[in-house]
Amino acid sequence: MNQGESSPDVASPPAEQCQRSQHRVESELEALRAKHADLQKSYTALRSEFDLQREKLERAAEEAAQLGRILEQSLNEVYLFDADTLRFLKVNRGARQNLGYTMDQLRDLTPLDLKPTFTAEAFAELIEPLRLGSEKHIIFETGHRRMDGSEYDVEVHLQMARFQGRACFVAIILDITDRKAAEEALRERERAHVTLINHLPGAAFRSGNDREWSMQFVSDGIALITGYSARQFLEGVVHLGNLIHPDDQESVWKGVQEAVKKRESYQVVYRLVCRENSTKTLWEQGEGVFSPDGELLALEGFITDITELKEAEEALRNLYDFNENLIATAQNIVLVIDPDGRVVRFNPAFERLSGWSLDEAEGSDWFETFLPKRYRAQSRRLFDEAIAGELGQWDLIPIVTKDGAERKMDWRAALLKDSSENLVGLLCTGSDVTDRLRLEQEVINASEEERRRIAQDLHDDLGSLLTGIDFRMKALTNLMSKRGHETEADSSSEINELVREAIRKTRTISKGLHAVGSHPDDLKVALNELVERVRSESDMRCQFRCPKPVLIGDAIMANHLFRIAQEAVNNAVKYSGGTQITVSLSDSDTHIALSVLDNGTGFERLDQEPRGLGLHTMNYRATAIGGFLRISRGKEGGTMVACNIPSCATDASTEDSCWTI
User: Fold this and answer.
1) Which residue, among 81, 113, 78, 114, has the nearest Cα to 93 in the 3D structure?
2) Rounded CA gap, 522 and 556, in Å?
3) SS3 245
4) Which residues contact 223 (CB under 8 A, 6 or more apart)?
5) Which band of pLDDT confidence, cut at 50, 70 and 90, is reported for residue 661?
6) Which of 249, 408, 519, 539 is deepest in the core (most CB within 10 A)?
């Protein structure tokens, strides 16, 4: 072995030690690494748990803050006050706003400052069960006083809690002002309801569905009906079923049972034998009361005494029967027309006159069915005015029978209303005056003929005689003057003047007796002379208007029109109290119109105007020539007498237009 080489035996022990040390170090390092990994896992787990707990705490804090905000913003009042000192710790905004205090002000106050009805002893006694733990929660009602002194009703929910490590009370306050008002209103309604029931003209009841009608409730009104008190019925001393008249008990029972079976309300009328043995007639209405499963629990209803009503109904029925018999047997016509102008009913007298039965005519248009064509427009206008409350003149409007004949009718009309003053229609009564008017026409025609004859005699005989005397007196006066008998001549001249005045009077009388001649223009001339005469003989300002010639070839028609105008003018002069009269005459394609208007006081009530001979005669004359007379107030006051003659009447002869029988 060379000197520089190492011997294996010498180098071996240190190397092994180094290897062992290295292995040990590596083992320890591996252990440290494993321990570090475990520590890292533990740290990660702890960190996760810490983050989780922090999130929970943050969430709880947020929830607590949110709950605080909710309580702060709650509409209910929330109070937190110390269990020992009773001073307020927290009061939410709703309470502060309602009370009017700030939080700083409230911290110096206790619940006793808000509750004027409580003393310290009473409040201590109230909260003692909460202090001892015998009660978890108490509720009571009291009043709260605001800072301004006003008070309001509250309901207090009170319990104990811990706040910031100390015992305290939590109070949730409900403002029950509205509820109290509603309860008071409900009590008032109940009181009024009971008062109303007890003062009704009858009795409210609740009874069993048995033949005795055993009462479970009945109002005090039962005493006025039966003579027995409500208590006697409720205690079973007396039963309504036993008081019902024996002849009515079975029908009442069956009527009620049928209605109950159908679950319908019932109405029964029966006689009741009262305490003083008098018999009354009762009306009862009721219905069954059922449980949710359909079981009949009771009957509820109302009973009232209708004895007087039944007696009144009987009297009314008798009166109705009497009126019906009176209408049925009346010789005059009775007619009812509804507001639309349709026939509602008429009596047998009209059936006999018109030839129409009520079944045929009911509902038909009165004007189209029963009136001559020339009268329809005027009659409908009169009808509309009557329905509106202005009843005018209804005399002498003819009707047409079923076979086409005309009958002259004298009408009277009145508004027909029901018990509530609602308009039902027009009630008309009429009488057939055809034959009477024929005789009257004959009399008037004879009178006109006699007037004409007398006028002719006055004009031809007396007028001629007076004219002859006038000539002779003139001659005698001249002769006396020539012979120098001046005194006698003067006397003769005076006599001559009287004769001439007699001639003028005779002509005036003759003209008045037969004012209208046969010439078509004579009516205009006669009316103008009438106006001139009135103007000269009275203080009235009288004028005649006729814008264009009105030619009437029928002398009888012209004379009737003149007599109408003459009568109207005379009435105006005598009775109107006016200062002016206007006579107008005109014609058109549809009618001839004559009117006399004054500016006097007029009729006080047109629906109650005087029906003297003059007015009746004017109306007759208008009807006789197929015309229509209307008397009304003028637009500016006074009285208007107007006669309109349809063209169809002027086209036909007077006899044909008036007496179509």
Assistant:
1) 78
2) 12
3) coil
4) 229, 230
5) very low
6) 408
Q: What tokens does 233 get?
A: 């019925």
Structure token pair of residue 453: 């004859």
CB 141, CB 153: distance < 8 Å: yes
Helix (H) or strand (E) holding 88: strand 88-91
Among candidates 181, 130, 155, 184, which has minimal Cα distance to 76?
155
Tell me the two tokens of residue 311.
């007696």
Q: Give bridge partners of residue 386 from the DSSP assignment.
A: none
363 contacts 343 by C-beta, under 8 angstroms: yes
- Burial of residue 361 (number of CB atoms within 10 Å: 0-12, 13-18, 19+): buried
- Cβ count near 136 (within 10 Å): 9
Cβ contact 77:47 at 8 Å: no
CB 203 within 8 A of CB 286: no
Q: In what order do the strands lie in the sheet with 580-587?
A: 541-545, 580-587, 591-598, 639-646, 628-633
pLDDT, mean over the chain: 81
Give how far Cα 135 sits from Cα of 132, 158, 161, Å.
Answer: 8, 10, 13
CA quadruple 38, 40, 46, 49: dihedral sign? negative
Check: CB of residue 644 under 8 Å from CB of residue 591: yes
Tokens (6 digits) for 611: 């029906």
- Range 230-260 burial, b when 16+ CB lie within 10 A, else e: bebbeeeebbbeebbeeebbeebbebbeebb
Length of the chain: 661
Provide the phi-psi class of 239: left if phi over 0, else alpha when psi is between -120 and 50, else beta. Answer: beta
User: Amino acid identity, residue 611?
Assistant: R
What is the rounded distance in angstroms from the CA atom of residue 343 to the CA atom of residue 360? 10
Q: Kindly give the pairing relationship between strand 166-175 and strand 151-163.
A: antiparallel
Q: Phi-psi category of 109—alpha, beta or left, where left has phi over 0 and alpha has psi -120 to 50?
A: beta
The CA R_g of the chain, rounded to the nearest whole Å, is 58
Residues 6+ apart with CB under 8 A from 156: 139, 140, 141, 142, 171, 172, 173
Concatenate the DSSP letters of all residues of 412-433 into one string.
Answer: EEEEEE-TT--EEEEEEEEEE-
* φ and ψ at residue 391, rounded to 5 degrees: -80, 115
Other beta carbons within 10 Å of 414: 12
Q: Which residues neighbour 21 within 8 Å (Cβ) at sequence distance 6 or greater?
A: none
Share of the chain above pLDDT 70, in %: 82
Which residue is listed with tokens 């002259």? 408
Q: Which amino acid appears at position 358 of this protein?
A: L
3-state secondary structure of 371: coil
* pLDDT above 60 for 27: yes
CB 562, CB 627: distance < 8 Å? no
Longest dimension (CA), the chain: 240
Q: How far is CA 111 from CA 83, 106, 162, 163, in A?
A: 11, 10, 18, 18
C-alpha–C-alpha distance, residues 560 and 547, integer Å: 21
Query: So what's the pLDDT on residue 225?
Result: 92
Quote the DSSP letter at residue 6: P
Using a 10 angstrom Cβ sphere, with 0-12 exposed, 13-18 middle and 19 or more buried, the burial of residue 43 is: exposed
Which has more confidence, 508 or 201? Answer: 201
Beta partners for 416? 425
Task: Report the C-alpha gap between 184 and 172 in whole angstroms.
Answer: 24
From the list 302, 310, 339, 67, the residue with the least C-alpha distance to 201 is 302
Residue 43 is which amino acid? Y
What is the SS3 assignment for 87?
Answer: coil
